[in-house]
Amino acid sequence: MTTTELTELTQLAADYYQEGILDKDAWFRVADADYHALLNALDTKRLFEQPSILLDIGCGTGRFPALLRPYLSAMPIMYDYLDPSQMSLQSLRKSLKPPYQARHAIQLGVQSLTEWQEQTQLQYDLIWGIHALHFVEPEEIPQVLQTIQRCLKPDTGVALGSFITEDCFYIGLHDCYCQALGKERQNWLGYKPYTQLGFEPLKIPRLEQSLEFVHRVSIADTYTLENYLQQCVFDKTYSLQEWFDNPILNDYLRQYQVGDTFEFPQKIIMIQFGDLSRPLLRNAILKK
Which of 5, 89, 131, 134 could form a disulfide with 189 if both were Cys (CB 3.0 to 4.6 A apart)? Predict the structure, then answer.
């Protein structure tokens, strides 16, 4: 399938995830902390207790399934994957090794998942969206959650989503960047709007677990630092020197300097919904 109309933020991300722009190795030297925090929170033995069909929403380049793979048994996993970036879909497919078995590549934004579900009527044992569900408009939240519910196998399907919090560095940096450069602020929808506009009014019971971790970058590693900041805001045009020459951005970044390292604090909320009889998060709290 091909991309339909995307939100501006989704389009920015899709345009960034292109050959010659994205340096995923430099990004993951820092951002792997996200996935390691998630792996520590997950009961990986419970994820795939039988042959399963999985949908990965906003799959990116496939870093999370690659890091998860050593924890898995040989139980086969049929893997469908959705992303607006063609490069990401191709990269993920190349990265999948047994027990993953690549199946449908779906070139869509998450807000268009409804049309995929209506056309295919496919249902899944597990759906996850890792750093992907914030690329929608507020009014689309109920539809996104309801579509995910319809995509789950009745009674047994499980959905996992990561939701950034309003006080995490990702959002703070984006807001500061837009202020400093006079750019229009984009909606990065995280835990609070999804709770207030989605889970609570739709009365979706869920398990929640907070994950806090730090992105560390040596100040001397200018290439990694520049790449990291550029990818956080999906803008390759503003050099690291320009970041530091801008007084607003410089002041914002320096508050996170610890010696010769930047330490950027991140916080996300992991949410499991669908079948809650098989908790996948080790220390989650039930919310109704």
Answer: 134
